[in-house]
Amino acid sequence: MKGGEIGIALLMIFGLMLFKPESAHAQQDTTATQVEEQLEKAFEELDSEEVGEAGEQLTQFLEDLAANPVNINSSGLDDLLQVPGINLKIARAIIEFRSSKPFEEKSELLEVRGIGEATYQRMVPYITIGGAESRFRDMYMRPEYWMANRKVEVFSRYQQNLQMREGFREPDSAGGYLGSPAKYYQRFRITSNHLSLNLTQEKDPGETLQGVTGFDYNSGHVALTDNGKLKDFVIGDYSLSFGQGLVLWTGGAFGKGREVTGTISKNERGVKAYSSAQETDFFRGVAATYGEKLEITAFYSNRPRTASVISGDTTRFPTSAGFHRTENELERRNNIDQMVVGGRARLDTPVGLIGVSGYYNEFSSYIAKGTSLSNLYDFEGSENSVLGIDYRGLVGNAFVFGEVARSQNGGLGAVAGIETPVTDNTDLALSYRNYQKDFQSFLSSGFGERSSAPQNEEGFYVGARHQLNSLITLSGYIDQYRFASPRFGTSQATGGFDMLGLAELEFTPKLNVYLLIRNEIQDQEFEIINVRGAQELLMGEEKRASIRANFEYQVSPDVRLRSRIEFVRNKEAGASWEKGFLLYQDIRIEPTNELRIDGRISVFDTESFSTRVYQFESDLLYVLSNTVLYDQGQRAYVTVKYELTEYFDVWFKYGITIFEDTQVIGSGLSEIKGSVRNSVGLQIRLQL
Q1: Distance in angstroms (rounded) separating the CA atoms of residues 392 and 81
Q2: d(CA 171, CA 176)
Q3: Residue 310 Ramachandran class (φ > 0 left, ψ -120 to 50 alpha, else beta)
Q4: At what angle do helices 29-43 and 48-67 cross, to 10 degrees?
Q5: Is residue 43 a contact partner of residue 616, using CB atoms and an 8 Å limit?
Q6: Contact criterion met (CB below 8 Å) for 306 and 319
Q7: pLDDT tens string 405-451
Q8: Long-range CB contacts (< 8 A, 24+ apart) of 127-136?
């Protein structure tokens, strides 16, 4: 780390320690644990590269929601729909329930129609019954109105890989990194019931830092929330998520995973002030939502993007990486502009919510698509627009949803589904999606096999969850899908099949076990040398199967143990089976209300990257850690959270991975010489 950056970091920490608070709110460890468990369920089945962009935003969304829980006694329909586990049917049942009496305990939600124990546990970290405070709707001009329930949060985070990567050895002129290996993040945020002010700054490893104002990434906003009919008003950075995500969706979403029901439909978040460190997946400008039964949203965004230049004013599609570490990366930083303008109208009717969304997008350069077959139907040009209509409603006890959208070139995308109880103990979820190969909606995120924008995919999903008895819950899904045009790495149409089975056993409140089986088969091309000695391309199947057993035991109120063993088999098309396994022992110790320690030791052995295994790890607040492990080795980490005072928290993490029979880790500028990879992280949070 360079001397100037050390000074900045020390000044930031010293300045925070001098700041005297008026009041504070301690982090609730139980809530944090529940949020972490939900994130683990959502992401550990996914490839870490797929999780990347959306994962961080969804992590922050859930952490923020847990820190600012929704009041079930006063929140409107939209706010209730932000809570995981609450759909339109349940939201309306909650509103109906509280019309006769307010909730005095959270557990009274179990008396609401449609809420079982599993659904209740999923939503409980994000709700509150609130207090008796009245809302100052007629006192807009008084400071008390804007400062009601005020919270001030200051974060400062430092992370660094301790092994020197090749990019830091290379001179600047040879394409090496210009900045230090350290990663800095800081955020200043003031929130109240009706106001939000935020500034987020980040420097990635290898990027330069020119003083406190010289961070590579800066994001801020001023937002008004919940002010009568003016639902949201944001100046600065914001995210948009509407309908089922086929037109506009930023900020991450749940997909296929261990939660097999309740995740195939999306509960829109509308306009949300943005405070994440994800550097590309947001809008910058102004946005507002006004209305009650009929809500109107309008937005305008204009911000710089980074894209590779092909020639003159022709570029590739803007990158989502957000790295500006080398002279080449800096040269093309923010070299084009993207303007987006659009809106949405949504009507709350007795039969459900009906919405219409659309936008017009313009780049300042001509975007040229890639040259591979998988890019054949990608967007090309400087202008695009997308328009869609969506629906969510109830038919008897069933929750139904759907959306249809059309891009400027005529490509169509559609998704529809139903979630319904079959018996008192059984829930069923069905969904069909058809995103045409020329559907070009690059500001969206639909349900499907791939986490990218919905395009070139048709699939049918069936998920079911059954409470066998008070101890055993069985659940699973089957998803059949097909890509009509070549996907990455193929030259023709392909398809696949994905299934998951899960048995959860809660022997006692202290001891629970689950067994998870997953199997996926996907078409894959491979080459052979035929009898004439020429290369020949054939179509085969890539198969991947895994089985996992997880044991969790609450030894005492202060100690929790978790053990896991997982076996993976993978067979590339035209190749032989390969296998791998992961074994870990995890411990959580909370000797006092102020101190929590998480530790884990893992052993892994895989024959190749194809048999890689994943483990979701405890990490610093707002950091998503779904670590991928491959080859042979061991990994260990320890995470410590200590509440120094009721307003001041500290997190620390150290992790180390030791590989067997490996002298080089990674490649290119990320290459590390040696068999050890370790990292350290430190974060402080001040709450006033």
Answers
A1: 12
A2: 5
A3: alpha
A4: 150
A5: yes
A6: yes
A7: 999 999 999 999 999 999 889 999 999 999 999 999 999 999 998 77
A8: 127/69, 127/70, 127/71, 127/72, 127/83, 128/69, 128/70, 128/71, 128/72, 129/71, 129/72, 129/73, 129/102, 129/103, 129/104, 129/105, 130/71, 130/72, 130/73, 130/74, 135/74, 135/193
